Amino acid sequence: MGLLEQLFSIPANKKVLYIVTVRCADMSAWNELYVPLPVLRSLEELRFTAPTPIQALCLPPAIRDRLDIVGAAETVCHTVIMTGLLEKD
Questions:
Q1: How far is CA 34 from the centre of its chain?
Q2: Considering the domain boundaries, does residue 66 fall inside one?
Q3: Is residue 42 part of a domain?
Q4: What is the pTM of this model?
Q5: Residue 71 contacts by C-beta under 8 Å, 6 or more apart in sequence?
């Protein structure tokens, strides 16, 4: 017995038709940036449908070429945010 059958008290001998509507955002702006599929799924869930200019510039060399990147970008509130990902090889 599946979860939906349990939640809605559907007898095991009944057939159920499931109709699922999935709303997919256009994530094509990320296609050339070498972002792994699990990360793309998370970005879609968070509704980040397009990279910022600095992400578009930094992600390919960071992911594809495994280069360290130092970058700075002005935000909407005119502050500078710097982020880094550290990974041990």
A1: 12
A2: yes
A3: yes
A4: 0.55
A5: 54, 57, 58, 82
